Amino acid sequence: MKLNPSAKRYSKALLLHGIELQALEAISTDMNVILDTLDENPELKSLINNPTLTKGDKQQVVLEVFKSLNEPSIDIIKLLINKNRINLLDQIAFKYIELYNELYQKKEATIISAFPLNKSIQEKIIDKAKLFSSSNLTVINIIDPSIIGGFILRIGDLLYDASLSKKLDKLKKELTQNNYTT
After folding, report:
1. Class of domain 5-102
2. Which residues, 6+ apart, have CB-to-CB distance to 147 below 8 Å?
């Protein structure tokens, strides 16, 4: 996601405000709710981005949708509406979560497999992955039948491909290379 520089500044300010209020976890939960809600409701996103609606109309709708959020999150929404920056809400939420995870050294470990992995297998993979990453890892298991078997592990910029499809591609490449000299 390409972020607007203003979104980065707002998210940093929100993080600092959360530190002052000792509400980082609550704000992080709220930002995840905001991201999920905006992703699931494109109509809400288009309403937020609609330049013809008044600030009051936007505030009424957005605050009604997000009425369960904590006070600091409600405050940032009100500020964004007043400054005509509410269109940056999803970017701010995304960047806040990124900054929060950096602060607590949390990273997502994405395991792509051909079928759902049980907890014990996930834990074995993550135990090995912790040798390469000192961060606290949260696991996301994505199902992709095209990898046939095995798994692909992605942690930040690191990628470990132990999939059967990768091994088959490598074998195919080796077999099709003409290594004969005449």
Report:
1. mainly alpha
2. 112, 113, 114, 163, 164, 165, 166
Q: List the chain domain ranges.
A: 5-102, 105-176
| pTM (two decimals) | 0.67
Q: Spelled out in words, what is the top-level CATH class assigned to the domain 105-176? A: alpha beta
Alpha helices in the chain (DSSP H): 5-21, 24-40, 42-49, 55-65, 71-82, 89-103, 119-129, 164-176
Contact between 69 and 55 (Cβ < 8 Å) = no
pLDDT, tens only, 65-102? 999 999 999 999 999 999 999 999 999 999 999 899 88
Which pLDDT score, from 0 to 100, does residue 155 have? 82
Distance of CA 43 to the CA centre of its chain: 21
Residue with tokens 């994505």: 142
Residue 162 CA: distances (Å) to CA of 115, 118, 146, 167, 178? 14, 17, 13, 8, 26
